[in-house]
Specification:
The chain has 15 helices and 18 strands. A hairpin with a 2-residue loop joins strand 2 and strand 3. The two termini are about 25 Å apart. About 5% of the residues have low confidence. Bound molecules: zinc ion.
Length: about 425
């Protein structure tokens, strides 16, 4: 199949006017000017007309469980007040509510051009009841603050539930093996839902997950070769709790039963660095509170962890400025993400790009688009498979209307429409269907 569009933005070179992409099964076979592609390939030509064709967007951090909490929690006085509010909202929700919420979130992410999502779920046991319509990294969100004596049991239950859900999806698609950070190897040509699913581990945050839990996650991630993610250094409350052993988060967690005896005046980053090795297996989400000593701590590993910034969730909380320029100068790979709808309005990465652009006006639209394509693919260990339109890459593509009134990159970042066409794994996605 050959897909033609007015302009093809490959993220692997300059945009191609009157461009075309040749697709073979689930992969991109070739990309170039339409005349070149027609000369080199046969097959049906799908002409998308006056549109820009680009790699599908990648949301590097989300919680689809909480799609149904959109608008339910007004911005709170402190991060700790928000934590209390979400805990009380969650008490009202059933398993069916969460399943509906995850489906609704997938449908919305898809509408806004997301073809890959890193999704944390507090309910890995519900994953078998969900068929993701887009490429999904499932991360069980692990918390043992209320019952530290049950860390092993909770960890085993969560990981077993998720692994068996993905293995049964593998069996149904007759795929073989899952290696290299969870990606399927030698995938069956019948593909199907299994080809779209991967996994990793998400100890929630240093204030809700114990040293023992973080260690277990790192050990399993190395053994199974999967990714790790955690919320880190997000709020002033978290910083105050760890560095000064006081404040609203300290008090609130003490009331929940956290003994807080592990706090020794260190920052959240220093605290975790005592027992975690922050290498490129880690996606560190937020990093708003990052004194100079902490960046040095993060620089100690042979490979750097990836940083994930959620611009609109960040604005909702009124967090300290995200140290983008400092992290970039030090060589960190930085991605953008939505976080959950308990602290955001929608799952639209175009709006995340525009919010970030207002905060960092010196960045070019191309650099901003990289943060939800090339950079996010690298963070997921997929820099040679996702985030670009290049031979050998997976055929995850989207199209948007374009007028030619600005550069293709400017038009993409400014896009206020929903996407008009999408392909994941070489198959057209029905945008009208929920999922
Ligand atoms: Zn989050």
């Amino acid at each position: 199949m050959i897909i033609r569009a007015r302009v093809v933005v490959t993220m692997d070179g300059p945009p191609i006017d009157n461009g075309a992409v040749a697709i073979e099964v689930d992969r991109i076979a070739d990309v170039g000017a339409l005349s070149e592609i027609r000369a080199r390939h046969s097959g049906e030509i799908v002409d998308l007309g006056e549109q820009v064709l680009l790699p599908g967007l990648i949301n590097a951090h989300c919680h689809l469980d909480y799609t149904c909490l959109r608008g339910k929690i007004p911005p709170a006085r402190t991060f700790t007040h928000w934590i209390r509010a979400i805990i009380s909202e969650k008490e009202r929700l059933s398993a069916q509510d969460y399943i509906a919420s995850i489906h609704e979130g997938f449908a919305e992410a898809k509408k806004f051009g997301t073809t890959t999502i890193a999704n944390l779920t507090a309910f890995p046991e519900l994953v078998p009841q969900v068929n993701p319509p887009i490429r999904t990294w499932w991360f069980p969100e692990l918390i043992d603050v209320r019952s530290p004596e049950r860390t092993n049991e909770m960890f085993d239950l969560a990981v077993d539930a998720l692994k068996s859900a993905l293995e049964s999806a593998d069996t149904s698609a007759s795929a073989v093996g899952r290696t290299c950070r969870g990606e399927l190897s030698k995938r069956s040509r019948s593909r199907g839902i299994a080809a779209l699913q991967n996994w990793g581990l998400a100890p929630h945050a240093p204030f809700t997950a114990s040293r023992k839990l973080y260690r277990q996650c790192e050990e399993m991630a190395r053994r199974e070769d999967v990714l790790l993610t955690t919320h880190l250094a997000e709020s002033r409350d978290e910083m105050e709790m760890f560095s000064e052993s006081r404040g609203p988060l300290f008090d609130s967690l003490a009331q929940m039963g956290r003994d807080n005896s592990d706090l020794h005046g260190k920052t959240p980053v220093e605290h975790l660095a005592e027992f975690c090795t922050f290498d490129d297996r880690w996606l560190l989400v937020h990093l708003n509170e990052l004194p100079a000593g902490d960046t040095n701590t993060l620089l100690r590993s042979k490979t750097l962890p990836h940083a994930v910034h959620c611009p609109r969730s960040h604005a909702y909380f009124g967090h300290s400025s995200f140290p983008f320029r400092k992290l970039r100068e030090l060589g960190f790979n930085i991605c953008l993400a939505t976080d959950s709808l308990a602290s955001n309005d929608d799952l639209n990465l175009f709006r995340e790009m525009r919010t970030f652009q207002r905060n960092e006006p010196a960045l070019s639209p191309r650099q901003i688009l990289e943060m939800v394509t090339v950079n996010a693919a690298r963070a997921l260990g997929q820099g040679d498979r996702l985030g670009q339109i290049a031979p050998g890459f997976l055929a995850d593509l989207i199209a948007l209307p374009c007028t030619g009134s600005a550069t293709a990159f400017e038009e993409i970042v400014a896009c206020k429409a929903t996407v008009t066409w999408m392909m994941t794994d070489g198959k057209s996605v029905n945008l009208a269907r929920l999922c």
